[in-house]
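Objective 1b of the project was to move from sequence-level analysis to a structural picture of ligand recognition. The entry below was assembled by the postdoctoral researcher (A.K.) and checked by the PI before modelling. It contains the amino acid sequence of the target and the SMILES of the bound compound, zinc ion.
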Amino acid sequence: MAVLRVSPGLLRAMADAAEAAFPNESCGLILGCAGPTPLAQCLVPSPNLSPEPRTQFEIDPALRLRLQRELRGTGQALLGIHHSHPAGAARPSARDLAGAWEPGLLWLITAVIDGQAVQTAAFRLGRQADRFEELVLCDDRAGPDPVRATPAWARMEPTNGT
Ligand SMILES: [Zn+2]
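Corresponding predicted holo structure:
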């Protein structure tokens, strides 16, 4: 099974975002270093723009565009997306699979039960885009801390699409 290294503190950051959004789904973008053993470094939270935020999520496309532009030439990349399942399991739903189309994009999912984040797992869409493969999460003690790894301009609070 492929391994995803995770900077210390990133799992906590995803759990915190998932709990803060409860009972809605949280969502955000995961930045890090690509490669044979990718390193996920930080979470850039997005407002959930879905009209049905309790059961669906929609990342702000303007935020994603801006991130991808700003990351050019930095060595950091958009590795994946994070969202929570406020009443579900830490694995992709049928709706997630239906909405996934980018091979290689990582999907990190945090399960929340009664307002408490209980588990985060990582998946990647297979080449045929017909199923997700799970990755093993591995805490990367040597990595930079997620706050410093987050570009300063991405640390501001997300606005609510106004
Ligand atoms: Zn989902």
